[in-house]
Every structure is written in C-alpha cells, then in structure tokens.
Design brief:
Helix content is 80%, strand content 0%. The chain has 3 helices and no strands. Helix 1 packs antiparallel against helix 3. It is elongated and about 35 Å long.
Amino acid sequence: MILTTDEAIQVLEAIRNCLDPRRVRYGADWRKDKALCMAIEKLKEDDQNG
C-alpha cells in the first residue's frame, strides 16, 4: 500500500491519538509519542519543502 504524505501524516496522528495519555506521561509510551511527533514534524517539513 502506497500512501501520500498527507495520508501518512493522518495515519501517524491517529496512532499517536490512540496512545494512553497516562502511559505517555508516566510510563513507557513517552518514547513512542516522541518518535511519532518527530516523524509527523519531519513529514510536514518535507512536504512543505517539496
């Protein structure tokens, strides 16, 4: 399955929204949250630069 940049960003944001906020703040999911944030930012930056 090939995704466009916008679709990939939507998928990553959906995954991030599914993380349990308590585990992000106090548990082991903060690394997942940080990695997803960085990936989303990078995709948005690459999309803007063309």
